[in-house]
Specification:
Layout: H1 7-45, H2 50-77, H3 83-95
Length: 96
């Protein structure tokens, strides 16, 4: 028979999955936004590859900074559980 999972482990795993999902969606959004903005500016100003290349190159560090910001903010919210809370949850799981 398998051991019951700890509710805190499930919450922690869900929080990590949320952070990964946010980072995984935000990075392509930044890169695609930079691409379209560069293409539009090149079309308007008739400077074909200039702004597209500049925005793509600049968007990579911006995406990394956004990634670090999101991860740091999310990890600061994940706090360790006090030992009495962890013990009471473990006792509750063992009773079931």
């Amino acid at each position: 028979m398998s051991q019951p999972t700890n509710r805190n482990d499930n919450a922690y795993n869900m929080a990590l999955a949320t952070v990964v999902g946010q980072v995984g969606c935000l990075t392509p959004i930044i890169l695609i936004g930079a691409l379209f903005l560069g293409l539009w500016l090149d079309k308007v100003l008739d400077t074909r590859p200039l702004f597209t290349i500049i925005f793509i190159v600049v968007s990579a560090p911006v995406a990394v900074v956004a990634l670090v910001y999101i991860v740091r903010k999310a990890t600061s919210r994940l706090k360790t559980i006090p030992t009495n809370t962890a013990k009471s949850l473990e006792e509750e799981v063992n009773r079931e």
